Amino acid sequence: MARSSSDDAITPAALAAFAAMRELEQRCTCPPRDWGGKHWEHPPPCAACEERWRHHDILHRELGCRPWEWPCVRNPAAKNPYPAGSFAAERWEGAREGLAQARWRALERVLRERAPA
Question: Are 18 and 52 a contacting pair, CB within 8 Å?
Answer without folding.
Answer: no
